[in-house]
Amino acid sequence: MTVQGATLLDRFEAERPRLRAQACRMLGSSAEADDAVQEVWLRYDRTDMSEVKNVAAWLTTVLSRVCLNLLRARQARREQPLDGHTADWLTAVDENRIPQEEVEWAESVGLAMLVVLDRLTPAERIAFVLHDMFDVAFSDIAHTMQRSVTAVRQLASRARVKVRGRQVRTADRDRRRAAVEAYLAATRVGDFAALLTLLDPEIELRADATVTGTGKPLTLHGALAVAKSAVAATPRARHTALALVDGSPALVMAPLGQLSLVIQFGFLGPAITTVQITADRDRLRTFTIALAG
């Protein structure tokens, strides 16, 4: 390798962690992110960079366009990210088949964030990730996306509303959020006694046929049965996060950011009276999901 080649490689490698972090958030898939960064390297390697004044900005522009094209292609095919085709997520979690480093990557980004980002349009996602998550100027994003600054601001604004939802804080919703968080915390460590303190004695749990994997829905009655069911689901709890679902505090299970099921709660006073678990793919698409704030 020539001195010039070594210098080019060193400059790229210095930017690689940032580029990969951006690509992971734009694409929601570490495998696709690695492919996108590799494509940027190939373009960088065959480009005369002597006239480029800001290499970091050039790399961000190329990466963003690569990711935008991938997102548009995915949307046109109406497919999930590539990772979504490789596993039955519920079974993969139950059998502990998801690599630890991939789990840690998804946790570092935020499971709920990955779910919400996946519901944005490609253009909204690029604008939001670059501006709100990486502080890229709207003028630079406009150049990247070949749109006006005003149009890019509008894209980011629409994305922000979708990501954050309508954060109307009330004492009642705050109490329910705290109860849902406590339910998740107790499930993660298998704390049967803590679960019982949260559940109404006459609680009813309903799970659809996709959740059970038997082709038949499931109904459980009573706090003891529901608490036992939650403890049995402890392995799934690590892949579960708090979110707003249709405006109410709920839980989303999303291994590597892939939405697999939604858990909704009903209340009477402070006690949880109903649990509804949904994993049917068509039904999952109908939910409005936002960060819990």
Just name the CATH architecture of the largest domain: Up-down Bundle
For the sheet with most strands, the description reads: 7 strands, mixed
Percent in helix: 55-70%
- Give the percentage of residues in beta strands: 5-15%
* SS summary, helix count: 15
- Give the mean pLDDT: 89
Q: Runs with pLDDT <50, length 5+?
A: 82-87
End-to-end distance, in Å?
50 Å
- The neighbouring-strand order within the major sheet is 2-1-6-5-4-3-7
Structural summary, described in words:
Residues 114-162 form the RNA polymerase sigma factor 70 region 4 type domain. It holds the Pfam family Sigma70_r2. InterPro entries: ECF_Sigma-70_Domain, RNA_pol_sigma-70_dom, RNA_pol_sigma70_r2, RNA_pol_sigma70_r4_t2, RNA_pol_sigma_r2, RNA_pol_sigma_r3/r4-like, WH-like_DNA-bd_sf. This is Sigma-70 family RNA polymerase sigma factor. Keywords: Sigma factor, Transcription, Transcription regulation. The chain is an alpha+beta fold and 293 residues long. It folds into two domains: 3-164, PhyR, sigma-like (SL) domain (Butyryl-CoA Dehydrogenase, subunit A, domain 3, Up-down Bundle); 171-290, Nuclear Transport Factor 2, Chain: A. It is 58% helix and 15% strand. It has 15 helices and seven strands. The chain has helices at 3-27, 30-45, 55-77, 89-94, 100-109, 111-117, 122-133, 138-145, 149-164, 171-189, 192-198, 209-212, 223-232, 234-237, 281-284, and strands at 199-207, 218-221, 240-245, 248-253, 261-268, 271-278, 289-290. A seven-stranded mixed beta sheet has the order 2-1-6-5-4-3-7, sandwiched between helices. β4 and β5 form a beta hairpin. The protein is elongated and about 70 Å long. The N and C termini lie far apart (50 Å).
